[in-house]
Amino acid sequence: MLSWFFIINAAITVVVIILERRRPEKTVAWLIIFAAFPPLGFVLYLLVGRNWKRHKLNEEFSPYVKELVYKEMHHIENPDYIPLVKLLAENSDSPIFVDNSITIFRSGDEKFEALINEMKKAKHHIHLEYYMIKSDNIGNKIIDVLLQKAKEGVKVRLILDRMGSVKFSKKRIKELKENGVDIVQYTYVLAPILRNINTSINYRNHRKIAVIDGRVGFVGGMNIGDEYCGKGKLGYWRDSHIMVKGDFVLGLQGVFIDDFIATKKAREPNYVWTEDFDEYFPEPLKADKKTMQLVTSGPDSMYPSIMHAVLKMIAMAKDHIYITTPYFVPPESVMEALRIAALSGVKIKLIFPGTFDHFFVYYASRSYFSELLKCGVEIYLYRKDSFIHSKTMMVDGKIVTVGTANMDIRSYELNYEVNAVIYDNEITKEFEDGFMDDVSQSELLTLEKYEKTPKIIKFIESFSRIFSELL
Question: Which distant-in-sequence residues (6+ apart) come within 8 Å of 96 by Cβ?
Fold first, then answer.
């Protein structure tokens, strides 16, 4: 009787997969799982394959954004980038922020020192939204600051991803709540009858945002944990994060508050934000006139906005593209754009880790190398005693994007992500100088070297790639 139940339900699920009109490779991957593991495949699909769109995080700023964008176009020095500005206004409702000072951090020690210093100065509120927070040395230091500020009367709000922050001590969460810290945990709820089961495995809030008093903001690739200070099993941790002072912080604040309210309402449908919004959007600090846009995307977005930004930047490149990503499982559109750019004479350099933190993702990523190497892309493997986790792309020394999105399908389609696009030669040069320093510490992977990869490793790469749509 039970076997017939699984057969009938599996048949229905296979039909549903086909009717959903996913990309063929994704459909094939799920069908392979069903064939190999019939009962388990059915359960896995229910938990991580089906898009149960019960609630979502907000993706829009305001209906007036496009009008504001067109008013501020003159702040873009290079007219070649106007199409990108318009694209992000249309697909991500992103205004132009024109008065910002930007500080770049290349390590966790730098970032956390600055974050803690700014939090200690907070007078009104501290907003943190992180995929992963651990109750380790650096995590406890930050928690202690949050507790102290909450006791001083500062409003502290914290958004955690339930999947990513599984190692955040329940005892410390309880302590924070008892001292007035408002904590919400993002989880993609499967259905009302399964409200207490964690089904966020495949849909994650991967954003990393900090906003202090509405005037100072942080965004980038670093979560909160000791490994980001080089104290984990992978050794030195190379990453990229920025601190911004200026009107861009208002955009980060908008993203945080939208996410907070949406996540809160998922558990408390009658929740209403009762505070004065104006207190959270103060007049920005006078800054350094750096021009930026904020790009968000998620599984419920109308468009994969961050992927669109990446595609447009690649298409606009005339001289060079520098990319750093810890995971490289790109959709075919991004691969094709990179191939076209490389074959058109654009010099492309890609830095990738020399070691892995996720076995299947690492080897699936390597399976794409041969195609790029044959087109003339230079691939560098970062030092094996370290891990590079930066998520950056620079184009022609004039524009850079940095944020939480990896160059993979998960970041573009399944996770809630946030990136900054910076239109500034000086800041882009600083990122490119850091990139070239990373190149100097990396090994060039030539096509000849790659083709000497042992057959068993190539098999693992090919096998992992079959499931790249699901990683």
Answer: 68, 69, 72, 73, 75, 76, 85, 89, 291, 292, 293
